[in-house]
Amino acid sequence: DAKTTQPNSMESNEEEPVHLPCNHSTISGTDYIHWYRQLPSQGPEYVIHGLTSNVNNRMASLAIAEDRKSSTLILHRATLRDAAVYYCILRDKGSARQLTFGSGTQLTVLP
Amino acid sequence: DTEVTQTPKHLVMGMTNKKSLKCEQHMGHRAMYWYKQKAKKPPELMFVYSYEKLSINESVPSRFSPECPNSSLLNLHLHALQPEDSALYLCASSLILGAGYTFGSGTRLTVV
User: Most buried residue, A23, B2, B36, B41, by CB count within 10 Å?
Assistant: First the structure.
C-alpha cells in the first residue's frame, strides 16, 4: 500500500481556516485520497475524498496537488467541535481493500 | 437509519469471563468490520465480513471469535482475554467491500 505522511499535531484558532497537509509521494494513478476524522470518544467518520480534482462538501475542501504527491484538507472556519485526529488514507479505485489508518494529525482548536 | 450501533459502550471483564460485543446496522450494508484501537494509536483491522462470510482475519488470537448471524448484525465473542486486550473496539460497515465506511462509537473494554 502507498504510504501517507502527516504531521503529528497542529493547532488552530477558532473561526480561522485550517490547512491539514498530507504527503503521499508513492501514490499510484488509481489511488483515491480519503480523509476521515476521529473526535474524542467516537469512532472515525468520513470527511471527504478525491482523485485528481479539488473537492468540496459541507464539511471541508480537499486540495490535491497537480502531481498528486500531496494533498491538503481545508476546514474553512475551525470550531471547537473540529478538534479531532484527522487521517489521510489512500485507497485504490478498483480495490476492495480494507481501510488502513496511519498515525494521523491531532488537531487542537484554541478558543 | 444511518448509524452503526455498538453495545455495550463500556465493559469490564475478568480474564476467565466470556462476554460478547454487539454491532448492528440497518443501512443495508453487506460488509462489516471489527477494529481494535489502543490509546493514542490508530485503529487496527481485526476482521472483515462480506455478505455474512468471514473475508479477512488479520491473524487475531482465537480468544476473539467473530460471528455474523445476519446482514445487520456482527458479534465479537471474547473468552480468556488478557489485560493487554483492553482497548476500544470499533465496528464499521460499508455498502460493499471498498465503499465508504460508517463507524460505530465503539465499546471500551477493560480486562482485569
Answer: B36
Give the model confidence (pLDDT) of B19-72 as tens digits. 999 999 999 999 999 999 999 999 999 999 999 999 999 999 999 999 999 999
Q: Is A1 a residue whose pLDDT tops 70?
A: no
Q: What are phi and psi of B84, to 5 degrees?
A: -70, -5
Give the C-alpha separation, A28 to A6, whole Å. 18
- Does the beta carbon of A95 lie under 8 angstroms from any beta carbon of chain B? yes
- Check: CB of residue A59 under 8 Å from CB of residue A76: no
> Can the peptide bond before residue B8 be classed as cis, meaning omega within 30 degrees of 0?
yes
The answer to whether the CB atoms of B106 and A43 lie below 8 A apart is yes
Query: Would you list which residues of chain B are within 8 Å, Cβ to Cβ, of chain A?
Result: 4, 33, 41-45, 48, 50, 56, 90-92, 96-98, 100-106
Give the span between the Cα atoms of B40 and B88, in whole angstroms. Answer: 11
CB spacing of A43 vs B4 below 8 angstroms: yes
Cell of residue A71, nine digits:
494533498
